[in-house]
């Protein structure tokens, strides 16, 4: 049997960077080994789970180009792939554990459990279930049932056992069973808990490697005990490090968005997000920092996944995204950037003329080296579009007060009018000619032209701005300064 791995999100919200990284590492491991990547849904938290979140998570995976061979929407032989559709299966396994004595019904009330907790804490001990219902007789059970109490099912944790976990990232990790306490595997409403359902899913889906976030390491001994009780073989584990902010703290909104689709909305490219999250906890052997998904699938290995926490550095992501924007075809960027300018009522929502389309592509080409993500087209569009410049402020106002300015602008107007074709190349020549004819230093010529046309002292190259504005807008913009 080949490698089989899975991504098992809880559909309680959007796909976060950490989840996307787990999905990616599983996907890469499957591809590298020509194995199978499964996506399933852990939706047993009935209150917080929703189909909408599930849909959003799947959409985010697709956007990232992380595709799965088996699972939700893809189908397969080991379905259903949604936990709430697998309740009968969990019931069978619960019966097995009850019958073999590895699990038992517990009738303790919330209040009783809380009292026990408080007493343990007051004693300086770690709170855990002490096993009050471990040895109930059938009479005691009947008595509780007639009182109308609904039981949970608890796993009977063996005493004095060392639980060894062989983790591909963390090495051998040992947990003592005594600290664990009998834990709930089925709640009183019949819904299994995560630690139980995940074992049933992983075993029935023949999962060979469980690759997931480090926050699940402490759950692993509870899962291993269930495998052992059922006489099943345990999969390989690989717990990948937490993702921290640059200060070493927990990631928060302040450090950058945590939901993958927030990056999509800002116009980050999926290949940049993939490249960035691949480097969160995994390190290539060479110096190269840019990897496509295909390249990653070749070079990825679990033994280069680091034990130390990964650092989420938005600057790094921006650097990677800017790189991919420079590399991308302008036609593709134009398509992706279109909604931002449509939002500003620039370019129509419906059909665009070939001319408008070409104009927009040239605009993107002119700024693609300057932007970090595509929503920034909104900050640039005013240079290139419309017949009024931004209002000048501060130093820019001073520039237009220079004594040479009226002559410069008059000559510029004359030259653009005369130009047969307002291309980047002709604009370059035209500006150069002006410095010669007026016998003025470049800055004294370019700067007033720039400020008159754009209102600002900095910005994209004039030979990009002028052709895209077009003769009519150039002349109108000049009128403002007259
Ligand atoms: N549903 C869990 C989560 O979203 C996944 C746990 C696992 O991979 O075992 O964190």
What kind of oligomer do you see? single chain
Instruction: Return the CATH topology of the domain at 87-240.
Output: Rossmann fold
User: Any idea what the CATH superfamily of the domain at 87-240 is called?
Assistant: HUPs
Number of helices: 19
Name the beta content range.
5-15%
Structure description:
46% of the residues lie in helices and 10% in strands. The chain has 482 residues and is mainly alpha-helical. Among the domains are: 87-240, 3-Layer(aba) Sandwich (Rossmann fold), CATH 3.40.50; 329-383, Helicase, Ruva Protein, domain 3; 395-481, Arc Repressor Mutant, subunit A, CATH 1.10.10.350. Helix 1 (17-32) links the parallel strand 1 (4-7) and strand 2 (36-39). Helix 6 packs across helix 7, helix 17 (424-438) packs across helix 18 (442-454) and helix 17 (424-438) packs across helix 19. It is elongated and about 105 Å long. Glutamic acid binds next to loops.
Outline the fold blueprint.
Layout: E1 4-7, H1 17-32, E2 36-39, H2 51-63, E3 70-71, H3 87-99, E4 103-106, H4 110-122, H5 138-146, E5 152-155, E6 162-167, E7 171-176, E8 184-186, H6 194-204, E9 209-213, H7 220-229, E10 236-240, E11 243-244, H8 260-266, H9 270-278, H10 293-299, E12 310-311, H11 314-327, H12 330-342, H13 354-367, H14 377-384, H15 395-399, H16 405-418, H17 424-438, H18 442-454, H19 462-481
Helix pairs in contact: 1-10, 6-7, 9-11, 12-13, 16-17, 16-18, 16-19, 17-18, 17-19, 18-19
